[in-house]
Amino acid sequence: MMLSEPGALALVGSFAAAAVRISSPLLIAAIGETVVERSGVINLGLEGAMLAGALAGAIGGSVEGPWFGLLLSAAAGMALMTVFATVTIWLRADQIIAGTAMTLAAVGLTGGLYRLIYGAGGVGLSLPTFAPVAIPVLSRVSVLGPMFQQPVPVYLGFLSVPLVWILLFRTRFGLALRAAGESPDAARAAGVPVQWCRTIAILFGGAMGGLAGATLVLAQVGTFAERMTAGRGFVAIAIVVLGRWHPFGVFAAALLFGLLTALQFLFQASGVAIPYQWFLMLPYVLTLLALAVVRRRVAAPAGLAKS
Amino acid sequence: MAILPGTRRGLGDWAASIAAVLAGLTILAVGLSIAGYDAGAALAAMWHGAFGSWYALTSATLVRAIPLITIGLGIALAFRAGALNIGAEGQFYAGAILATWLGLHLQGWPRFPAVVMVLLAGVAGGGLWSLVPAWLKRRYGVLEVISTLMLNFVAEALTSLMVQGPLQEARGVYPQSDSIAEVARLPLIPGTRLHWGFVLSLLLAGLLWFLFQRTLWGFQLRATGANPRAAQVTGRINVGGVAAAALIGSGMLAGLAGSMEVSGVSYALFQSLSPGYGFTAIAVALLARLDPRAIVVTGILFAALETGAAGMQRDAGVPAVVVYVVEAVIILVVLVADAGLRRRAPVPEAAAA
Amino acid sequence: MIPALELRGISKRFGPVQALEGADFLLRPGEVHALLGENGAGKSTLMSIAAGLVKPDQGEVVVNGVTVRLGSPRDAARYGVGMVHQHFSSVPAFTAMENVALAARWPMGSPRVVRQRLEELTRRSGLAIEPDARTESLSVILRQRIEILKALATDASILLFDEPTGTLAPPDALDLLRVIRQLAGQGSSVVLITHRLDEALAHADRVTVLRRGRMVFTGPAQGLGGNELASHMLGHPPENVSPPVPAVVGSPPAVQADRLSIAADGGRGPGIRDATFQIAPGEVVGLAAVEGSGQRELLRALAGLLEPKSGVLQVQAPVCFIPEDRTTEGLIQEFSLADNLMLGFGAHAPWVRHGVLAPALCERMTAELIEEYQVRSPGPLAQAATLSGGNQQRFMLARALAQQPRVLLAEQPARGLDIQASRDIYQRLRKAADTGAAVLLHSNDLDELLAWCDRLMVLAGGYLQVVPPGTDRDAIGRLMLGSGSRLS
Questions:
Q1: Per the count of CB atoms within 10 A, which of A6, A26, A75, C135 is most buried?
Q2: pLDDT tens digit sequence for B193-240
Q3: A105/B153 touch (CB, cutoff 8 Å), yes or no
Q4: Mind telling me how many Å the CA of C20 is from chain A's nearest CA?
């Protein structure tokens, strides 16, 4: 490397910061999906919820500022997932196909609405975004300091990890929810309202998916584009598998993902010319590799995708 | 979890399919009205765009139906075996890439073998692309739902890489390939822009129907999809192998569709060669209840929806992308109707024990 | 004295089946009350109503003198009614502690507190359990213990046991009945649902018999005779079953296993270790074992579905296997009967030619079999799901016998069937043996095996023993637990 030592350290710092930034929408979506899958539902509509959240975040952000955008995005994700919950839980449609359909619907809806609101060409939309907030002590730590100068939604993502852990493993509701996911029949016999547990989980997952989409728009990109989530919802589902359906595992998997994706900045900085498409493929290929390497002895919730 | 067991089509199924289409169009009309469009004019533009003229029918709608039917047949093949292939989009591109590459190198060949070679290249590309999830599933237990999905994005990035790299046109300006050799192009049916791939897709539908209904392998495939445990224990079927074969066959059909698109329509590789055929084909196959004969009908229907949507955008200013909402509604209504019909099936004695 | 539980004039209909028709039942405080009846008599349904699982169409439920309406198991728990199910209703992936906490709705905030509560409960009841053991890794008897703890944790004083001894080896069953007696001594009132007369007579204070959804007898157990109870259950005096005909042994064995070892299926359970045995054409051999003793693996290896780890295994072809679970392994419920016949025959069927099918041929054969085996169904194109359990079982047997197997393996072929239906199944198995098939029959019910088999083999913890003729029932029961001295 030709970089001087302080330059190299700064590079590591910004690399770490980029990793955290990239991973946070994935983390938020995956934490929501963890709850959903723990209740026995696999939600391939997560991609759609993120997309809906992204547009809602953009609209809300441009009208009333980023906080309102965040609120609207959670509502949009939840609204979309209300349909998913109705169809799969109460009308017992196949979850995987219905989830795919929800994503398809979200592509159509967001595309149509976006053009309706912002015109046919989709004028370059520039939004007010969350400013980075430095965490008092941590942000001044050398090298890794930049990791703790992030927009608020990133911290919300971090916070959701222990909160969801408490919900799942330290509350009666969490116990009931996990029972619904592991063995719906046994849960029913114990008086657990399985369908309601799953419905609540799906709505929570939808809200988190929406927030994840808004985080992408309001804390990273600063604009909306059609299909801008580009499969992140599906990656989040893979992260849940990698993280073995456990909030802390999911946290680690999401961070790992961010790190690997951020590698491209290191490459760019070091001046190696690699076509950018390789970096586009990287997350998906890595997901596949990781899914194959992680031995799945800690099994999925036994009742996943079963009614 | 059998999505749609291979039972006879009843009147209820037909009614549900028609209701699904009507529901989709109704929701579209209502949505457009709310958004301030003239829904009547939009639907009229849609009809006109799809069926309004001989040209629209043959050279737009039926041309678009070819990939939808072919991929839809592949989806049916996989779903019937219980393999949830959500990756037809990627398999389509893999087939298209390989077909383009070969098609660029076939100057001087006689026409018939050249076209066959190009189509086979597509089959090989799609097959190789679906070999990955099939292998990951058997060797490592990776869910094919996730792996096929992931590979869609990889294939799209790969296509982008190809048209800006190894396969880029000679001048290196546009992100697309050169045109493939004349001899590698599927001939057109005279007086239209409809290529002979349409006939091929009809033949494949018949072939697949025969496979499902009249061959032992097709029976084993249906049994595997309907109840893998019973298929294994009672039928002594190698269910993992059957499901893997179905997934690979499914990829081959999607790859074939990719090569037909290059060889019969675009003559070159583009970044956005497919407007989401792989996903629309899921709706095509489901609406047809995975019946190959019905897939011909639903494939044409969805092609009409999509060419109609383009007409709607042109003539009524409605974004064509909203047609995905219609497709989603159709899928959901079919799923719900099927779940309802299944629930009404007689309950065995278990409840009274 | 106020009854602990009283059910008055209960009626319940499931679709076309009238499960209960004005049934009455009365449980006194502190007693053990046996509820007897054939399969399908309505015992489980009646108790499910008392437990809030099923809502009656008509009738009254009175708990401790108060008429109640039970909308859910939770309601029932509030009135002190708890049910211990026949099919365990714990979450397999949960720990014992989590399962008890789930059922009792304990707050989960502090794992230490939850553990203390469980420990206190086990101390009080004398039912010890390891709190952090995953439920699915436990033995049948321990899993049942969790079920009982779950009921006790909800402070249930009225305990309903649904066929609790059905899957236990006789000595374990005896242990459990002692626990039940002890619970009654501590102030609980217990209903013991069973179809075993001896159990009812030996361990209950009082007995009630249901037949076709009505109460036909109730009274003290003391002084009752087995024959008297049986005729209440059946509605007529029991017939004598003709004793089995001894097998004609002499021809070479159809099944021969020498030091056969099989790995556990799915990584749990004992598998099979060093089994040596033979089965001759013409004999029905019973395989006695409690759940999880290796019978799954043995039968599947004989059927060619599992590869043995070591040893020699020779099985004459064709071999047919009737799996225990007819709904998920034996039949494809949404397929027609003809398609299910096709499934069983595989590639070597008259209707398969170069991989192409002639479905009409298969439909004709299905129609003939339906006729011959008296399978009640609308026809060969009817969905398997539309048949009753007994008819599904008969169809599976017909399918197996139509292949003229040299070896027939039947895994609990009469589970859940009433006396008539199961007798019919066993008679047909006998007949298959008489025409030269070697039949291996597994059942949880030792008495059934003793009644229908020429000789028995016992599996316990993966070890197989051939039972010498003339061994008494108790000795076989001890063998099933692996605790009996090895017979020589």
A1: A26
A2: 999 999 999 999 999 999 999 999 999 999 999 999 999 999 999 999
A3: no
A4: 22
Choose the closest CB to B332 out of A101, A112, A281. Answer: A101
Distance CA B61, CA C305 (A): 50
CA distance A123 to A125: 6
Which of the residues C335, C383, C418 would you substitute to probe the B interface, choosing the one with the greatest number of B C-beta atoms within 10 Å?
C335
Nearest chain B alpha carbon to C337: B7
Alpha carbon of A180: minimum distance to chain C alpha carbons (Å): 9
pLDDT-based confidence at C66, cuts 50/70/90? very high
How far apart CA A298 and CA C479 sit, in angstroms, is: 36
Q: Which residue of B has its CA nearest to A86?
A: B336
Flag whether residue B143 sits within 8 Å of chain A, measured between CB atoms: yes
Taking Cα atoms as reference points, which of B141, B140, B156, B138 lies closest to residue B87?
Answer: B156
Chain C residues lying within 8 Å of B347, measured CB to CB = 14-15
Flag if C105 and A169 touch (Cβ within 8 Å): no
Q: Assign 3-class secondary structure to C95-161.
A: EHHHHHHHHHCCCCCCHHHHHHHHHHHHHHHCCCCCCCCEHHHCCHHHHHHHHHHHHHHCCCCEEEE
Nearest to B165 among A87, A275, A306 (CB): A275
One pLDDT digit (tens) per residue for chain A, 307 residues: 444 566 677 777 778 888 888 899 999 999 999 999 999 999 999 999 999 999 999 999 988 889 999 999 999 999 999 999 999 999 989 898 899 999 999 999 999 999 888 876 555 677 777 888 887 777 777 666 777 778 888 999 999 999 999 999 999 999 999 999 999 988 988 888 999 999 999 999 999 999 999 999 998 888 888 888 888 999 899 899 889 899 999 999 999 888 888 877 777 777 777 888 888 888 788 888 888 887 555 567 777 776 5
C135 interfacial to chain A (CB closer than 8 Å): no
Chain B residues close to C300, C-beta within 8 Å = 233
Nearest CA in chain C to B221: C343
CB-based contacts of C191: which residues, under 8 Å, 6+ apart? C5, C27, C33, C35, C47, C50, C158, C159, C160, C161
Q: Which of B304, B228, B282, B297 is nearest to B74 (CA)?
A: B282
Are B235 and C321 an interchain contact pair (Cβ–Cβ within 8 Å)? no
Distance from CA of C481 to the nearest CA of A (A): 28
Long-range contacts of B161-166 (CB under 8 A, 24+ apart): B161/A275, B161/A277, B161/A278, B162/B97, B162/B100, B162/B269, B163/B269, B163/B270, B163/B271, B164/A275, B164/A277, B165/A275
What distance in Å separates residue B200's CA from the closest CA in chain A?
28
ipTM summary value: 0.88
Token pair, residue C394, equals 């008969």
Q: Is residue B35 scored above 60 in pLDDT?
A: yes
pLDDT at C268: 61
Determine the 3-state secondary structure of B226 from DSSP.
helix
Q: Which of B3, B85, B151 is nearest to A292 (CA)?
A: B151
Task: For residue B11, give Cα distances in angstroms to A140, B15, C124.
Answer: 71, 6, 62
Task: State which residue of chain B sits closest to C355, comparing Cα positions.
Answer: B216
Query: Taking CB atoms and an 8 Å cutoff, what residues of chain B touch C352?
Result: 216
Compute the nearest-CA separation of B219 from chain C (Å).
8
| B230·C44 Cβ contact <8 A | no
Band of residue C266 on the pLDDT scale cut at 50, 70, 90? low
**Neighbour count for residue C449 (Cβ, 10 Å):** 23
Specify the 3-state DSSP secondary structure of C203.
Answer: helix
Number of H helices and number of E strands within chain C? Answer: 15, 21
